[in-house]
Structure prediction request, 229 residues.
Amino acid sequence: SYELTQPLSVSVALGQTAMITCGGDNIGGKNVHWYQQRPGQAPVLVIFRDNNRPSGIPDRFSGSNSVNTATLTISRAQAGDEADYYCQVWDSSWVFGGGTKLTVL
Amino acid sequence: EVQLVESGGGLVQPGGSLRLSCAASGFTFSSYWMSWVRQAPGKGLEWVANIKRDGSEKYYVDSVKGRFSISRDEAKNSLFLQMNSLRADDTAVYYCAREGPRSGSSYNEGFDYWGQGTLVTVSS
Prediction:
């Protein structure tokens, strides 16, 4: 079965840029989606199809996808961005990465 | 406004059964694939099952095949998950989610709306 690998944690200073990676075999050939989940809340889609933002998601959130790594980039990080982030792809079934805890210092 | 509201969670003994419901509103329910996703306490997201727009196709994660059954009722704008032979490792918050537009195996947009979840606890 297909596997997605994310770092367990990423830290970023307030106002700086955070990058969260999602590794997978030839992930560059798949549509990658990213979710933000704050404590006690349901996940929220923040990026779909590699680099598209749903309505209402700030343009501080962006994505890229190439070869074996997809990346979620959060610019000008705010305290409210502190959350768990999950990547997702379709590979004969839906697959989620293990999640990355983002800490804003 | 799109809304997904889950219900039916609770405490059940190992080997028992539970039926989860998800009431959908604010969109044309019959136009979307729907999924169930679960999250064990302190763990990550795990996709459980999904169902095609017309109910003609259903897919499951291996760990629930033969025990769980997904269904939908267009007249009630509702999604269901029948869970049988429950085990301790089925303990989780179960989310109902709407799948965004998709076409074949190469075009999809992820899950654009999620419910707030319902907690299922399997314990004696």
In short: Chain B has no helices and 13 strands. Chain B has a mean pLDDT of 96. The two ends of chain B are 40 Å apart (CA to CA).
